[in-house]
Specification:
Distance between the termini: 21 Å
Transmembrane segments: 12-30, 72-88, 100-120, 140-159
Largest sheet: none
Shape: globular
Keywords: Membrane, Transmembrane, Transmembrane helix
Order of helices and strands: HHHHHHH
Strand content: under 5%
Number of domains: 1
Structural class: mainly alpha
Helix content: 55-70%
Radius of gyration: 17 Å
Length: 164
């Protein structure tokens, strides 16, 4: 017997989608590949570079604070996505699973997660400023806006809350 959508949690499937996005497109190997092969001068190159926003890394010539901030940002994107998917009430109030409210709730959760992850990790970086915090939040929100539809699609049809 195949698993159907009635066994899928919207929060769980959206979090797994966010985790896959961060693990694959935030990896140093993807980031190196896209930096070597694409430029920001085309829409496709801009989008491929945007996918690498929650970049994580093991080593760098950068300061330890900045490396930890990048790794923390990648972790926070996933954790905050799960938190916001759980807290956003739009799809919990929807009567039918698979409605557009689930798509928009998942998309919004990823936008908020990207923005807050950027804002919070600015405090960990060396020499943080208010301007750099606003810039990081804006970059995170842009990442969530252009990539979050994937998380929104992953949440479609999943159940919310308690089941009868």
């Amino acid at each position: 017997m195949a698993l159907t959508n009635r066994y899928k949690s919207a929060t769980g499937s959206g979090t797994i989608a966010a985790l896959i996005l961060v693990l694959v497109f935030g990896s140093p190997w993807y980031r190196d590949w896209v930096t070597a092969n694409y430029t920001d001068q085309t829409a496709g190159g801009w989008f491929l570079r945007l996918l690498a926003y929650p970049a994580w890394r093991f080593d760098s010539s950068d300061t330890l604070q900045n490396v930890l901030a990048d790794d923390l940002r990648a972790i926070l994107v996933v954790v905050l996505t799960a938190l916001f998917l759980y807290l956003l009430p739009g799809s919990q109030l929807a009567r039918a699973r698979g409605t557009l409210s689930q798509l928009f709730a998942g998309w919004a959760a990823f936008i908020f997660a990207g923005a807050f992850a950027g804002l919070i990790t600015t405090l960990v970086r060396s020499n943080p400023t208010l301007l750099s915090a606003f810039d990081a939040a804006g970059q995170g929100a842009a990442y969530g806006f252009f990539v979050g539809w994937i998380v929104g699609l992953a949440t479609l049809g999943g159940w919310r809350g308690t089941r009868s």
